[in-house]
Amino acid sequence: MGDLDNLQAADRLIVPLDVATETAALALVDRLPQVRIWKVGLELFVSSGPELLRLLKQRQKRIFLDLKLHDIPNTMAGACRAAARYGVDFLTVHASAGKAALMTARAAAQEGAAEAEVPPPRLLGVTLLTNISSRTLAFELKVPLELTDYTLQLALLAQDSGLGGIVCSPQEADLLRRTLSPAMTLVCPGVRPAWAQQDDQQRVLTPAQALAAGAHYLVIGRPITAAAAPEAAFQRLCQDLLP
Ligand SMILES: O=c1ccn([C@@H]2O[C@H](COP(=O)(O)O)[C@@H](O)[C@H]2O)c(=O)[nH]1
C-alpha cells in the first residue's frame, strides 16, 4: 500500500464526531477545517440520521461511517447495502459476525454503491475493541485464547471474507501488518498522545508509536474534541507526527 504509507499527517487522522446533535457536529467540523476524514458513529447517526452525511459531503469531507454492524447475514447485507448508497468512504462491521455475514455484507455494500452510482466503501472488520483488556477477554468474555491470537484470528477472518481492512488496537498493528496482506488497511483507535488522558481505552499507543507499528490511519477523538482548544490540540498532534 505505497499510497497509504506516503500520506501526510493530516490525511492519516480520523476524528470521531462523538456528539449528540447535528449542530454540535457541524460546529466541530467548521472549527477544524484541516480535518479531512470525519467518523460518524452510533451516537450521532442514531440521533441525527443520514442528513449529516450529505452535509459532510457538501463540505468535501471524507466519511467513516462507524456503525460496527453485527447481525445475521441477511440483516447485515441490508444495512450495508443501504449504508453504501450514501457514498461513505469507510464502513465498519464486526469481524466476529462470521464469514457468511462478512461475505454477504461485502457483496451487498458493492451492490448498494453500484445502485447509487457511487464508489463502494472500504469495508473494515472490527477485531477486538480497544477498551477490552486481556483480563476482560479471559474472565468476562471467557475467550480461551491469548488476546493477540484472538485478534489475529478475527483479522484473518476479515481478510479471508474479502474485506478491505480492519480496525484494531495499535498494540496489535505490528503483528497484523506483518501477517496480513499489504492490501489490508489498518485503522487504529486507542491512540493517545503522552499529554492526553487514556479515558476508557485500554490497549493504547502514542500516535508516533502507532504509525511506527504500521497503522495506516489513526482515530483520535477526545484528546482533540474534548480539549479546551480543539484547534491547538489538532495542531499539536500533527506536530507530534512530523518526522
Ligand atoms: O476498537 C475500537 C473501535 C472503535 N472505536 C471508536 O474510536 C473512537 C475513539 O475515540 P477516543 O475519544 O479517541 O477514545 C470512538 O468513536 C470509538 O467508538 C474505538 O475506540 N475502539
- Give me the CATH fold name: TIM Barrel
What strand line-up does the widest sheet have?
A: 1-2-3-4-5-6-7-8
Identify every distinct bound molecule in the structure, by name, code or SMILES. ligand LLZGTKA7
CATH class: Alpha Beta
How many domains? The number is 1
Helix content: 40-55%
Strand content: 5-15%
Number of helices: 13
**Which ranges are low-confidence, i.e. pLDDT below 50, for 5 or more consecutive residues?**
none
Quickly give the CATH architecture. Alpha-Beta Barrel
The largest pleated sheet is described as:
8 strands, parallel, barrel
Helix- and strand-based class? Answer: alpha/beta
Count of beta strands: 8
Between the first and last Cα atoms, what is the distance in angstroms? 20 Å
Average per-residue pLDDT, rounded, comes to 95
Order of helices and strands: HHEHEHHEHEHEHHEHEHEHH
Shape: globular
CATH superfamily: Aldolase class I
Global Rg = 17 Å
Account of the protein in words:
The protein has 243 residues and is of the alpha/beta class. Strands 1-2-3-4-5-6-7-8 form an eight-stranded parallel β-barrel, surrounded by seven helices. It has one domain (2-241): Alpha-Beta Barrel (TIM Barrel). Helices cover 47% and strands 15% of the residues. It has 13 helices and eight strands. Helix 6 runs parallel beside helix 7 (99-116). Strand 1, helix 3 and strand 2 (37-40) form a beta-alpha-beta unit. Bound molecules: the ligand O=c1ccn([C@@H]2O[C@H](COP(=O)(O)O)[C@@H](O)[C@H]2O)c(=O)[nH]1. Residues 16, 18, 39, 41, 126, 129-130, 167, 189-190, 199, 201, 219-222 line the site of the ligand O=c1ccn([C@@H]2O[C@H](COP(=O)(O)O)[C@@H](O)[C@H]2O)c(=O)[nH]1.
